[in-house]
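I have been asked to look over a protein record a colleague put together. Alongside the sequence sits a line of tokens, each denoting a local backbone shape. Please read both lines and tell me whether the tokens look consistent with the sequence. Take the sequence as given and treat only the tokens as open to question. I have pasted the whole thing underneath without changing anything:
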Amino acid sequence: MSKKPSRHEPNKAKSIIAQPLFRSRQERAGKGKGSYRREAFQSKSWEASYFLAA
């Protein structure tokens, strides 16, 4: 007697939740703690970082 290979169907709920739409992401603070944006000051153009800081 030979066994038939079992076939696993994809779980629809898991595939929907795995989409990027449902990924948790952290929001950046606009004011207060954590609002300092270091990226603006590492720019190669000092003018761009100057206007972002002002």
The chain has a mean pLDDT of 70. DSSP finds two helices and no strands in the chain. The radius of gyration is 24 Å.
